[in-house]
Amino acid sequence: MKYFFLSDGWTTGRVWEFGGLWNELAWQRKPYIRRLNLSIREQGEILWLYQVEETVLMVEVKPENGSQTTIGQVVLKRLMTAEQVIERLCSQRD
To answer: Domain residues for 38?
Structure first.
């Protein structure tokens, strides 16, 4: 599995795998993306931990409907390993 943190008020969009944009017809399913019940607080924002399957290379994220922001979308290209997530969670305890 791979992981990423996403700010409260943002949602996932398109997903890329090794062959390009995720093709639901070819895979016969949507990609596995799940928000876990773990979060960290950074600079006053809540960042939720998401889990994605190993096949996922990149994830587009964007503000949820009605969110007031100047950023339209972002593509996350460096997803985290479980070890990196544990390090990040532990560093929040200091």
So the answer is: 2-91
